[in-house]
Every structure is written in C-alpha cells, then in structure tokens.
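One such shown below:

_____
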Amino acid sequence: MTEPLHSPLHDRHVALGAKFSEFGGWLMPLQYSGVVAEHRAVRTAVGIFDVSHLGKLRISGEGAADFVNRCITNDLGRITPGHAQYTLLCNEVGGVVDDLISYLVSPEEVFLIPNAANTTTVGELLAAAAPSRVTVANEHRDHAVLAVQGTSSDETLAALGLPVDLDYLSFAEATWNGVELVVCRTGYTGERGYELVVPAAAAGRVWDQVLAAGAEYDILPCGLGARDTLRTEMGYPLHGHDLSPEISPVMANLGWAVGWDKTDFWGAAALREQRAAKSGPLSRGLKSLGRGIPRPGMVVRRDGTDVGEVTSGTFSPTLGTGIALALLDRSVSLGDQVDVVVRDRLEPFEVVKPPFVEPGVREAA
C-alpha cells in the first residue's frame, strides 16, 4: 500500500495538534480546534488552510493558452492575463474528468490547479494532446498553497505587505522577505479571501507569519473538514461527489462554466446534445425542514418514489440545520418538499437553489 504524501507544512500541523485524514493520496489536516469553530472563524474573522495537496500544472510555450482553451470547457478568451477562471475538463461523453482553476499568466503560459487525486490524469491527458511547441509540466510538489479566507483576510495579508487590492479572480506576483509568491483572490469558502502559491521550501515561514499577523483578528488554522462545510453552504461542487466522469456540467448546473460559443472543446458535442435535450437529472440544493443530517449516497424520495440521491450533505454551522446537494429527477422543482432516507427514517427537506448562505466573496475591501 502506498504511503500518503505529506504537505511541506506537515510538521506545523503536528505541532498544532491537528487530526489528519487522507485526501487524494495526501495526509492532510481534517481539523484542529473543531470543524464548527474553524467554520465560524472564516465566516466572522479569518482562517488559514493548507491546501498544498491541490495539483499544480504549468502549460507553457507558443500558443499555450489557445491549446488549453481547446481542451477546457470555459473560455479563456473571456479573461485577460492576471486573471483566473473556474473551468472543467471533460471526457468524450461530457462527464467531468476534473474541475480546476485556470490562471492566465500570458498567451504563452497557463497555470492550472486541479484536484489532488486527478492531477496526474489531467497532466497526462494534456501532455498527450499538446502540440510539440507546448510543454506540460507537473509541479505538484514544487509549491505549497495556503488559503487565507474570511472577513479579515485583507487586514491579515496587508500586515505582511502583500497585495490585497485585487479584484475577485485576479492574481499578482509579490515578494515577501525574499520569497517570490503569487497572491490569488480566489478560494473555496464563499468568503472574501486569498490563496498564496508559495515555493514549498518557504511554506513554513509564510504559514508562521500569516498566523502571527492574523492573531489580532482571531485567526484560526482550519482543516479540510471546515473547508467542506463552507463550500457546501455555497453550493460549490466537489469532484468525486457532485462531479464525476458520469456527472456532466449540464447535470451539475454548471453551464455558466462552459464556453458554449467556442468552436470546440473536449466533450463539446455531448454537452451540447445534453443541453438541447433538457433531460436527465439536475443538481439541486436541499434544506432540512426537521433534524435530519444528509450524507452522500442517501436516497431522495417524493411521495414514496425514488427521485434522486444526495451527492454532498452536512450540518450547516451557519444555519444550524442539515443541507445537501443532490442529483434529482427533472420532475422535482424548486420549492418542492422531498424526503431523504436517513438511517431508515424519512426526513423532510425543501428543494432550494444554492447558495444556502449569502456569499461575501465578491465584496470590496
């Protein structure tokens, strides 16, 4: 059995008393002080996450951006260098190989951040399709990624002299104490925040200083447990649950991340056919009307008939109730009441449109 990989910050997490779990082949912090406390820190103050398990792929060379744009669903032509974009890489039947963030550095360079478990697959697929003048480099172990998220994230990073006057989904190169890093106005929590792409060797120093700078704002180190509850409150999908090679962007209600007017991209024909057919299940939000806490794989019923399945489910610390994302039959509409089978009990839920919590991600400083 292959041993899980460790983050460059593993020793810091051990010292902080983190509880660990394996994510995509990496041993990462699940929680420190507790999921609810860490979740609330992000919603009301600031939290710092180690997400170094996420992949890092650099595609460079003549026409690199055009090449990437012929593969991914979203349209890189919609953004300019210095900006990022949520996108998907699909297979020939329209299923999602992975969802990722594209950072457009220049027409000759794109930096991609895929999910940890899919990094090798995405890199190999792109490398096999790349023209000779384009290079696909897997830099998974070269960088750490620190996510500084929450209402006081600006103040925390500004105290270190890092740029925070960034528009949502933009990024800037910066130098801190001789360390060259990239500050990205991105994140997976729905709150205003940043992700720092840092050389792996310097990750510990940056982590320590962010924690020190955020102390007066009640910063907490946060694990991937809180990251999951935060993203679920926003209705953000998780690959392997709400997206998969069998679950397409159309089914996942991610048509906004597809450049429908592009000439071609991987899976284009299948996705256009699905879109036109208006058939098949759709991802919807579920909000508990009782005390049930939904979990992935639980059956959803309406009037005694199975109409879908929970793909992501959790207790919402912000709302104090159970919430879920579920793939539901198109006969189910927003506002309908359904039942989720929770431990052989039928628990009532309302079908709603995510997000479950008002996002603060686009708020100005």
Q: What stands out?
A: The longest strand covers residues 305-316. The first helix runs from residue 10 to 15. The CA atoms of residues 38 and 222 lie 5 Å apart. Helices lie at 10-15, 35-44, 64-69, 119-129, 153-158, 203-213, 224-234, 268-277.
